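Input sequence (379 aa), recorded before submission:
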Amino acid sequence: MSKFYVELKRVVDDSYDIEIGHNLFNTLIRELKGNLGQGISRYAIITDSVVKELYGDKLYELMLKEGFNVDLLSFPAGETSKVRRTKEILEDTMLEKGHKRDSCIIALGGGVVTDLAGFVAGTFGRGIPFINYSTTILGAADASVGGKTAVDTELATNLIGLIYQPKKVYIDLATWGTLPIQQVSNGLAETIKHACMADIEFFEFLEEYIAQLLTNEGVTERQKEICIHIAEMNCKIKYEVVKLDEREANLRQILNLGHTVGRAIETLSDYTLLHGEAVAIGMASQVRIGQKLGYISEKEADRVIALYEKTGLSTHIPAHITTQELVSKLYTDKKVRKGKIRFVFQEGIGKIKQYDDGNYSIALEETFISEAIEEMRNK
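Predicted structure, token format:
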């Protein structure tokens, strides 16, 4: 019998820039002609059907005009498209069009687009570069930064995927002006989560200014400074976590604040609830359970819930989802270990609870969770 040791020690630098600004297509094209496009022969813009009409066709035409070899691929907008079948169609289309390992994907859109296109990039040709160009508040707050890529299944959300970092992230604040109010609220859910877990001053800023983003006019030039601050703080908070724990060994769990219940609600709603709408419910559940455990005061929990409701997001578990269904679905959460449901909790506002063993999540008994959820429903 022979035995070999395969030594594969690696030092990898996956660092990248995040650029926040307005109308960044020309910046993107200029940088693709420079170092950002080094070694790349072809591009595939991947977007959804809504963003294609708003921005995809324009970027495609600009790149063609500038002499790039580029294709434009799109899929029906919405979370229901973030599945393995859509990924397969995108991959087959790229293969049919002759894309190889010298191709680069430009993910143009919100969280669904960046999650899905990033996953395609991570597996196509065993990994090709990709660039995130975020057009939504949710994308700026969450999906476009940190390297999380994934698809959903009927059983759970985001459990099939990988960590794969982009070459660069562009956050185009001008695109926020075309977001309907529901999508503005949807994106702000993750923003509030970041404030809850890391920065009370940011939380207070949101309490004061968030209503200005939710008028009938939508996001306009008048809110420019508010938008810049929100984008910068989201990136800063998430970056500080990801740089210390890219692969979610422990610390990165804190980005899952509110998602234990939130993701379960999203799945059980058959994705009729937007991600941020489900996260708002998950965050409300998290603070109420945390209140029972002594991690947050009733006054602080009320402030968190009030801010979500000020954003136009419901914090109540939908009546058609039973407590038993919800608790059963919690077992599909990615934090489950040894068959135990685990939660991340904030400690007050602006801080995360860390336990004596150094962990940032804690296992709770099913009976306790069920009782806590019933109390919330009856309150």
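Checked by second reader. The beta strands are 17-21, 42-48, 70-75, 103-109, 130-134, 148-151, 160-163, 168-172, 341-343, 362-364.
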